[in-house]
Amino acid sequence: MKKEKDKKLELRVSSGIVKNKKLKIPEIDDFRAVQEVAKSAVFSIIGDKIDGAVCLDIFAGSGNMGIEALSRGAEWCDFVDNNSISVDVIKENIINCGFLEKSEVFRKDSVKYVGKTEKKYDIIFVDPFYKDTAQKHLISNIKNILSEGGLVVFFHGDNLNLQEMVKGTDLSIVDERKFGNSFFTILS
Prior knowledge:
The protein is built from 7 helices and 9 strands, in the order αββαβαβαβαβαβαββ. With 188 residues, it is an alpha/beta fold. The strands form 2 sheets. A 7-stranded mixed beta sheet has the order 5-4-3-6-7-9-8, with helices on one face. It has a two-stranded antiparallel sheet with strand order 1-2. The chain is globular and about 40 Å long.
């Protein structure tokens, strides 16, 4: 039984210069990795925008999305997570993939990071725990750090109404997909 669970939670880079590189998973309660099919769909939609992009992976967990972006041609990725276990795993995964010179890891609250950073990002990956639905402050500030023409890829459960959250902001929903109990919504 344990082997089945471990296999189910195995992460790997699906494409690019470090394709098939395995990623370590943080041992945290309620950790959920982005499904392979969802990850592939996201990068299919993003397409060439990933080439040379400056990315931000917040609520980064294992660093799965940011590392995938770097593998597919992103120029840089900042990773933000407030859990020390996740931060250690992200650093290990970055070193394992050879992306130390193309990234930085911050142990900070993701919402506070977005509210305080002066950096601009072309693509921002947002993947909070699905039970964490209090993201209005994040949504209202994220446009301030998004480059012109940039995209936000927000992973969430069905209990989060992003349509309602983007009201009154300069963000709009570009695309939304459902995979089982998981969704991702692309905002610009």
